[in-house]
Amino acid sequence: QVQLVESGGGLVQPGGSLRLSCAASGITFSIYTMGWYRQAPGKQRELVATITSGGVTTYTDSVKGRFTISRDAAKSTVYLLIHTLRPEDTAVYYCNAHNIAAYWGQGTQVTVSS
Q1: Residues whose CB is less than 8 angstroms from the CB of residue 92 and which lie 6 or more positions away in sequence, other chains included
Q2: Are residues 13 and 112 in contact, defined by beta-carbon separation less than 8 angstroms?
Q3: Rounded to 10 degrees, what is the CA torsion of 76, 78, 79, 80?
Q4: What distance lies between CA 44 and its chain's CA centroid?
Q5: What is the pLDDT confidence band of residue 47, given thresholds at 50, 70 and 90?
Q6: For residue 85, how far is the Cα from the chain centroid?
Q7: What is the pLDDT of residues 68-95, one digit of tens each?
């Protein structure tokens, strides 16, 4: 059974930082492209960042320079390091694993507010 379990969300003040984690099981982690998406209230889910099995990363324009995606093959875990959080970053953040099939985690809430 495939599981993607996100953690690390929470309430953070503007300008703060967070590290989200997504632990994968039930898949051959090394061959999957991993990604982070987010969905804000009343908005569609959007792609935030991806990292291929070879370590190539992509970011949506609004997070470039503030978000860093990385992966640890030994732990089958993908991370999203977020700096300089803004209120508009408030959303549920979802982990995604994509190869022939695609899998989703349950999401972790990030709230940026003073």
Answers
A1: 38, 39, 107, 108, 109, 110
A2: yes
A3: -170
A4: 16
A5: very high
A6: 14
A7: 999 999 999 999 999 999 999 999 999 9
